[in-house]
Automatic annotation (TrEMBL):
GO terms for cellular component: cytosol; nuclear speck. InterPro entries: RMI2. This is RecQ-mediated genome instability protein 2. Essential component of the RMI complex, a complex that plays an important role in the processing of homologous recombination intermediates. It is required to regulate sister chromatid segregation and to limit DNA crossover. Essential for the stability, localization, and function of BLM, TOP3A, and complexes containing BLM. In the RMI complex, it is required to target BLM to chromatin and stress-induced nuclear foci and mitotic phosphorylation of BLM.
Length: 146
């Protein structure tokens, strides 16, 4: 019979949680000895939600060609995305003004949220619709999860 070892189980992550940059700014690290593996956000009155893999959307503010990091902005503030050169098809969707989706692992929350990209997609074709719906999508998912 096949048995999972503890390292396999420990590395398993929950699905990405939709979050806003303002929520990450106030997140608290709950990882072992400050490891950063698990953060807790407070989506509402008395509720808490553990997150490590996040789904964020925003407008590209800065995308220097010579770096592996870009700056995005959602309706609540800015956040940095690292590792964009390592994401398949990630770099082509990163020009100033484009609206993009990023899934990634939280690296830091203060003074500005930083995530390491795992997946990226250009949502610019329907940017107006995505922008209008984003905050509602975030709120709805977080209500379901808490």
């Amino acid at each position: 019979m096949y048995q999972l070892d503890k390292t396999t189980v420990a590395k398993k992550r929950s699905p990405p949680v939709k979050v806003l940059s303002s929520q990450l700014r106030t997140a608290q690290n709950q990882g072992a000895a400050g490891s950063g593996d698990c953060w807790v956000i407070r989506p509402g009155r008395g509720r808490s939600l553990p997150v490590s893999l996040v789904w964020m959307q925003g407008t590209v503010m800065e995308a220097p060609l010579d770096t592996n990091t870009v700056l995005l902005m959602d309706e609540t503030g800015t956040f940095a995305v690292q590792g964009v050169n390592n994401v398949p098809k990630g770099k082509p969707c990163l020009s100033q003004g484009k609206y993009v989706m990023v899934m990634g692992v939280i690296q830091a929350v203060s003074p500005e949220p930083v995530i390491r990209a795992v997946k990226m997609a250009d949502l610019s074709a329907l940017a107006a619709l995505h922008r209008r719906m984003w905050k509602l999508e975030v709120e709805e998912l977080q209500q379901v999860l808490t």
